[in-house]
Design a protein that fits this description.
about 40% helix; alpha/beta; about 20% strand; binds S-adenosylmethionine; two-stranded antiparallel sheet
Length: about 280
């Protein structure tokens, strides 16, 4: 069975930022008429184990298992969310999430064993006028399609935490030549078009009879800036601060961005998120 290895310190950081945001979000909106929804689009199975890969069969040792994003969201109780949507493509993990429905019989929990890129555009279209949502996009790598992010932005009802897989994308945007053909379609899907990553390359003047050569001079921070520009183009506001999540050897793995789509709510949402991104 596949293993879940989502790191140590950086996993803790992203989850702590998310948890604090969810708490602040439900508190800030508690006297508003909105129905609040938490959408965990890459929901995992509810747990993570610091530093080591784990399997679901491994649950014997609960002492070192920590709550993953789905369990953290359910634990917000100053003002709980009205509804939870957990999307998880892996059948076994989504079955584990079903356990949460049994543990929290009074909570409105939907578990969707689906691809997030299919489920989220559909959910976005069905959000009602008085519904507001926080969406957590926490993939292993390059699974989030730009069209999905765009669908969320278009709702004007959603705040979004996005983990941009800077390590995987930088590897595919190799330095000395254009990405391998088999990677190009994936990069198009992540950025929402070739023009957004192709501009990171400069064409070298070819010598006589040679093919044109390409070189990427932009570093990973400049690649992340490209993605940030994409978010800024679609959402009402993006938090000025982003968090680089690094692995134990200090290599950047993900950039954590926050983007808000609702014109009225965005300034306060971004204020809260930016404070958390700076301080936690
Ligand atoms: C990094 S883990 C999520 C961890 C989780 N947020 C937590 O804190 O416990 C990513 C999860 O996304 C799932 N996944 C991968 N591709 C997916 C897709 N296209 N749609 C939905 N889930 C997917 C994987 O099975 C995995 O459980």
């Amino acid at each position: 069975m596949s293993q879940m290895a989502f790191g140590g310190e950086w996993t803790r950081q992203k989850l702590e930022i998310l948890r604090r945001y969810l708490e602040a979000y439900t508190t800030a909106l508690k006297d508003q008429p909105f129905k609040l929804i938490y959408i965990d689009a890459f929901a995992g199975d509810g747990y993570w184990r610091p530093g080591t890969p784990y399997t679901i069969e491994d649950y014997g040792d609960f002492s070192t298992l920590l709550r993953g994003s789905a369990r953290l969201a359910l634990a917000i109780d100053n003002k709980p969310f009205d509804r939870f949507i957990f999307i998880e493509k892996n059948r076994q993990r989504s079955n584990s999430l079903m356990q949460l429905r049994r543990e929290h019989p009074r909570r409105d929990i939907n578990v969707l064993n689906r691809d997030a890129n299919q489920a989220l555009p559909w959910i976005s279209e069905t959000l009602g006028a008085l519904e507001r949502a926080v969406v957590f996009l926490d993939p292993f790598a390059t699974q989030v399609s730009w069209s999905t992010v765009e669908a969320l932005a278009a709702t004007q009802k959603v705040d979004c935490w996005v983990l941009f897989p800077i390590s995987a994308v930088t590897r595919q945007l190799r330095r000395g030549d254009l990405p391998l053909t088999e990677w190009q379609a994936g990069l198009d899907r992540v950025f929402g078009g070739r023009e957004y990553w192709e501009g990171l390359y400069s064409q070298q003047l070819p010598l006589l009879h040679d093919e044109p050569r390409y070189e990427r001079y932009r570093d990973s921070q400049q690649i992340a800036s490209k993605y940030r520009d994409r978010l800024r183009g679609s959402f009402h506001m993006v938090a000025p601060t982003q968090r680089t999540l690094r692995n134990s050897t200090n290599s950047p793995m993900f950039e954590l961005f926050f983007a808000a789509s609702n014109p009225r709510g965005a300034p306060i949402a971004v204020d809260i998120a930016d404070h958390l991104l700076k301080n936690w």
